[in-house]
């Protein structure tokens, strides 16, 4: 079985981690797997599987025309191409060449972030505009839809993805809902170590936010909610974890303006075992993103027994409803967010049930199980 996994960047966030976990397991099973991605200076020597990096001819925002993708797909004669993320050149090109080159095509859209953000702009929830906004409806109605319909199989990460696939006329038999897996590190813990770490954080309650510091993740909303929380819970602290995606300076400035710099701690990016330690020490995870596929962070929090509050971004609202492990709040009101946080924290029985339901829901979300479901799709297509 010769398989190509296509992804805009590698390594990186949720979609990139998804590709890495699949590639590692394919490689360990002796399959011929190649990750095709954009050019960068990243050291790929740590990976056993092959990585092909292609330069970009030019870009329109995030949409980058890779140079040589058609030649690689033609030369390598892949049996199956699994493309990741909707709304990118590599997915559209893989769909356009599928019939000519004869490979089977699987796609995981990882939500419809661009489409969701465009809809939020239309109702005034997002003020930030782009010179490419006018292209969005044309892309979704024609190019994006054609790409999805060209696939032999579609993997939905959430009920929202599944519903959109059906809405545009995809047969149910060509869709499988498979949530992202959770890394092994989140299933392993030492209670004594966690208790010691929790004491070092020196806060009650401990609030946690995990995600790149970019405007899409909307940390500003959470930071603005902290003064209202401190009125009722003066010993509280918020720990924000993630690499800087352009908003670190703005967020630290906002904290100084609000007089809460000592109560909002930016801890930077962390390895999975460290993320797990924070999650098992915290009281509540708060995720305020404007757009998502389905957030891996929420899945990780459930494995850790950590209740969450999330916006309805992407599949996150469906996840909260399905798992009963978290609460959903609207996108843009810090007073409403602070009230939901306070009410949730004060309801000890509710917190206990959220934690138990999260643990029960996530028992089968390890990557070893998720991978087998994805591999089964590959096998069926190539019979």
UniProtKB/TrEMBL annotation:
GO terms for molecular function: phosphatidylinositol N-acetylglucosaminyltransferase activity. Keywords: Glycosyltransferase, Transferase. Residues 202-352 form the Glycosyl transferase family domain. It is an enzyme of class 2 (transferase). Residues 13-185 form the Glycosyltransferase subfamily 4-like N-terminal domain. Its EC number is 2.4.1.198. This is Putative Phosphatidylinositol N-acetylglucosaminyltransferase.
């Amino acid at each position: 079985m010769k398989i190509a996994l296509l992804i805009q960047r590698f390594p990186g966030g949720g979609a990139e981690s998804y590709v890495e976990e699949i590639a590692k397991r394919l490689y360990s099973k002796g399959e011929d797997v190649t990750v095709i991605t954009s050019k960068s200076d990243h050291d790929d020597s740590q990976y056993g599987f092959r990585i092909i990096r292609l330069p970009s001819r030019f870009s329109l925002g995030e949409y980058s025309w890779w140079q040589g993708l058609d030649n690689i797909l033609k030369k390598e004669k892949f049996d199956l191409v699994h493309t990741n993320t909707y709304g990118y050149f590599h997915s559209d090109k893989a769909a356009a060449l599928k019939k000519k080159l004869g490979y089977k095509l699987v796609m995981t859209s990882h939500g419809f972030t661009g489409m969701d953000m465009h809809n939020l702009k239309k109702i005034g929830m997002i003020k930030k505009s782009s010179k490419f906004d006018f292209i969005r409806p044309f892309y979704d109605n024609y190019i994006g839809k054609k790409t999805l319909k060209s696939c032999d199989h579609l993997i939905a990460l959430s009920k929202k993805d599944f519903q959109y696939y059906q809405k545009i006329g995809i047969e149910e038999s060509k869709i499988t809902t498979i949530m992202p897996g959770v890394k092994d590190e989140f299933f392993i813990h030492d209670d004594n170590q966690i208790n010691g770490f929790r004491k070092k954080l020196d806060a009650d309650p401990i609030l946690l936010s995990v995600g790149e510091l970019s405007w899409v993740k909307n940390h500003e909303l959470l930071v603005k909610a902290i003064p209202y929380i401190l009125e009722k819970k003066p010993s509280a602290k918020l720990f924000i974890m993630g690499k800087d995606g352009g908003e670190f300076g703005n967020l630290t400035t906002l904290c100084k303006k609000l007089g809460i710099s000592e109560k909002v701690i930016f801890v930077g990016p962390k390895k999975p075992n460290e993320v797990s330690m924070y999650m098992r020490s915290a009281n509540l995870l708060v995720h305020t993103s404007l757009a998502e596929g389905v957030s891996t962070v929420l899945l990780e929090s459930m494995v850790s027994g950590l209740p969450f509050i999330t916006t309805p971004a992407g599949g996150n609202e469906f996840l909260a409803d399905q798992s009963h492990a978290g609460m959903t709040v609207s996108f843009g009101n810090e007073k409403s967010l602070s009230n939901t946080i306070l009410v949730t924290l004060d309801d000890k029985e509710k917190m206990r049930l959220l934690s138990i339901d999260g643990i029960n829901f996530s028992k089968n979300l390890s990557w070893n199980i998720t991978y087998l479901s994805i591999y089964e799709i590959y096998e069926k297509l190539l019979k």
